[in-house]
Amino acid sequence: LALWAAGRLRPALGGVGARGFAASGDGDGGGLMAPELPAGLPPPGDVSKPAGLEALLRHATPGGQKDERRCSGCGAWLHSNSPSEHGYIPPEAWAKFSASGRKKTRKEPMGVPVEWVPDGVEVQRDTSVKYKVRTKVITCERCYRLQHYHRTGEPVTGGFYRMEGGREWQHEAEVVEKVVRRMRKGSIVLKIVDITDFESSLVPELFDACRQRQFPVILVVNKVDALPQTLRDKALDRLKVWVRRMSRQARNTSAGDIVLVSAKSGFGFQQLEERLRHHLDPDDPKWIYTVGRTNSGKSTFVNRFLWFIGYNHQGLVQHKRTVGGVTRAPIPGTTLHFMSFALPKGFRLVDTPGVPSRAQMTSKLSEGIDLYGVAFTKKTAPITYAMHTGRSLLIGAMARIDQVQGAITFATLFFNPEVTLHICRTQRAEALLDKKASTFFFPPHNREDYDRLQPLVRHRVEVIGSSDRAWDDIVIAGLGWVAISGYGTKLLDVWVPKGVRVFRRPALMPQEMRNRGITRFHINHRARGPRMRRKKNAIVRARRDKALRDALRADRSAMEEAHGAPREVEEGTAFVEEGVELPAGYTLISQPPAPDAAPAAQDPAAPR
User: Fold this and answer.
1) Crossing angle (nearest 10°) for helices 269-277 and 298-308
2) How far is CA 105 from CA 127, 161, 311, 316, 490, in A?
3) Taking the chain, what is the end-to-end CA distance rounded to the nearest angstrom?
4) pLDDT tens digits, one per residue of 527-543
5) By C-alpha distance, which of 582, 581, 585 is closest to 602?
6) CA-to-CA separations, 102 to 19, 146, 272, in angstroms, rounded
7) What percent of the chain is predicted at pLDDT more than 90?
8) The pTM is what?
């Protein structure tokens, strides 16, 4: 296949965001009657349409730097008008890049350069690539913070999720329709599904919408490297059977159109290439769209896919540090617009914004440290605890599971290692959680975020287990899952924030308790070591300093406003109070002379 030749063909076209395609990613033309038009809209096009007229008005806005160039991280149109709008970049940062949005960088070696070396001194040549000239591509301020500091910053408005009339999305079906409507006819769809959050990321509505438009759909199951012991052939076969059974709700997706990959490590892309050979013809170039739920790994998949085929127009991309390329972060809605990449022979790869959901735990969190704390970014290390009737399992400060009825339960927990786990008596679970939330139980790390999650809603689940094999999983959308084993039927109460979904499904990893055994509970097992203690202390200090800075700034602003406010002075009010002793040589003028009167003679030496 010409698309993936053995010699890694150089792409015929470079850059991101082809103007002819990308301009369709914004264009509902909502908010035309708004008093302030949002920045970061496409360049002027057809002014007979609302989108073109709105873009024309934006370019006529005085002040700020504007350009017909997209951010290489999120796809937003770059501008320097308003920091609250997506695509904002400070003018001083913009000036460091060339007109093409690129700049060359090279790490300089340490030491003092010399013009010559004395005879007899050995010269060692460093042949590593660390001093190689690298190219960086311009990104907006939001993407830069996400890539380098993992900070969300102030929330931005607009983007692909702005609907007609300037309003934000209300239902998932609106975003699904908007994504599918912009797909080119005759394209192929790669539907990305997160194996660690399978039920929430499957999105059957998106699959049905693609099939109605007769798009061939390949189900790409991502993040298989996050599961323990899954990269073996036998485990992969069992996992593919499990995925095929679970995806029946998507109209029985055939086994041939299911591919297991890891966008982080590059596993499975050879099998994906073999599957694409059956859908792509070098003489009939098509566009390849990656679609799916937010946080399913679409942007990471796109970066790894471009690396696999030898695409070299993204500039410096560090896959392990998640720096460069398309921005990937566990923040819902990181990709704000369609992003198109030109491939050889007329093919194109398009990254699309994810379909958001309010039924996931990630939609309830706002701090970057909390979102990174619940996402599966590394291989999962499950741990098994024993529970009895009348005991509760506290999962951070976000959820809890009570055992209401049944024999002893062996709960194998699949959560991020930075989520605290605690077992206590059910009768004191609520008071303990309310007392120590965000200090001893986290995420969330902020008390205000914990208060927004309240009150928790109960979901009663009945599960069946055996001795050392789990038959059922209890899944909390966007957080993780618990595999239940132990003889008999058990009645459990799952408490989660309002709107977050809870699923019961066949066990994904049924043999983990047999492989790892049972661990006696201890409070320092998860997220309470010295490293996390230092991290928590740093968070507390940073928030205390921020609160102090905000208070000082507010006091100074109030003082300046009070000093600068105009004051009304009654006529005849003396500027110097009577009876005040003046310094020697000064005299008090009780009344100014009349305009017609001649000025009185004064001693030139007397001070005034």
Assistant:
1) 80
2) 18, 35, 20, 10, 61
3) 96
4) 777 877 787 778 778 87
5) 585
6) 18, 19, 32
7) 40
8) 0.78
